[in-house]
Amino acid sequence: MRHVVDVDFRARYGPWALVAGASAGLGAEFAAQLAAKGLNLVLIARRKETLDELASTLMHDYAIEVRTLQLDLGNDDIDTVITAAISDLEIGLLVYNAATVITGPYFEITLQDHLQEIAVNCRGPLTLAYILGQRMLKRGRGGMVFMSSLSSFQGSALIANYAATKAYSRVLGEGLWEELRTQGIDVVTCSPSSISTPGYLASTSSRSRRVSSAMMTPREVAAETLAALGKQPVVIPGWGNRLANVLMQRFFPRKMAIGLMGRVMRGMYQER
Ligand SMILES: NC(=O)c1ccc[n+]([C@@H]2O[C@H](COP(=O)([O-])OP(=O)(O)OC[C@H]3O[C@@H](n4cnc5c(N)ncnc54)[C@H](OP(=O)(O)O)[C@@H]3O)[C@@H](O)[C@H]2O)c1
């Protein structure tokens, strides 16, 4: 396959990138777009076979090196496991894409599952930013991409804990953007609306998907996010989503914004 390596991007964020949550949907798309820019990849997820298939395709199509690591990012020991797996690599870019997405009434979800959601969505990006960021600081260059969500901007019924975890990753990313930007490390947090990933399509009602004109493809979201790296702290892909967010945050009373999100979530997750 013919492709043009992005020499500037590779010099700034290469030679290796690590994509956490890379076996499907948006994570696999981030991996493909980074491969096309000429970066070698470490791909992490729980499904080893799917990861290995993606690795073979990318190595073949883009003549890059790919290393896969089967790992549950909710595990307590991810810092030691990942540190050992990448000790010989110069990783210039972190993409933390993985998320646990548990939907439903708050008390119908076990406490253990809520805590697992926090482990994958909050402790995971914190840990990876810590262990990879220290090495980037020493080199004086690098980048970090965190996946948040439009739901991070206000509380949401039926995804109360998920939305709160996404607020965590956005606020972590914003803080690191300000703290690290003078030290050569670019940070961007992506807060998308609906993306047509296999996980999203399987979890939502067909009626809600029909009325969701805002749904974007993984390709569009990954491209807008990577283009925003080094330019701004937060990116909301899609002009319609940016407009909706401005309306919700600046013009709707808080109570109305939270109520509207609740109605949208009931349509998505209760009327299947
Ligand atoms: N899709 C949307 O509409 C939407 C909207 C707003 C925000 N987002 C955010 O965008 C990101 C991608 O979301 P998505 O649901 O569409 O997913 P995706 O990128 O299509 O797939 C999620 C990836 O994360 C991996 N993963 C999940 N849990 C993991 C764990 N415990 N340990 C290791 N890997 C794990 C999955 O692989 P394995 O199953 O093989 O582990 C998969 O590769 C998430 O951060 C999500 O919060 C998505």
Number of strands: 7
- In terms of quaternary structure, what is this? single chain
**Series of secondary-structure elements, N-terminal to C-terminal:** HEHEHEHEHEHEHHHEHH
Mean pLDDT: 95
Secondary-structure topology with pairs:
Blueprint (H helix, E strand, L loop, with lengths): L6 H7 L2 E5 L4 H12 L3 E6 L2 H15 L3 E5 L7 H8 L5 E6 L14 H29 L2 E6 L12 H21 L4 E6 L7 H6 L2 H6 L6 H11 L5 E2 L3 H13 L2 H16 L3
Bound molecules: NADP nicotinamide-adenine-dinucleotide phosphate.
What is this entry, summarized?
This protein has 272 residues and is α/β, with parallel strands linked by helices. Helices cover 53% and strands 13% of the residues.
Structure notes:
This protein is of the alpha/beta class and 272 residues long. The protein has eleven helices and seven strands. A seven-stranded parallel beta sheet has the order 3-2-1-4-5-6-7, sandwiched between helices. The protein is globular. The relative contact order is 0.13. The chain binds NADP nicotinamide-adenine-dinucleotide phosphate (NAP). NADP nicotinamide-adenine-dinucleotide phosphate binds next to helix 2 and helix 7.
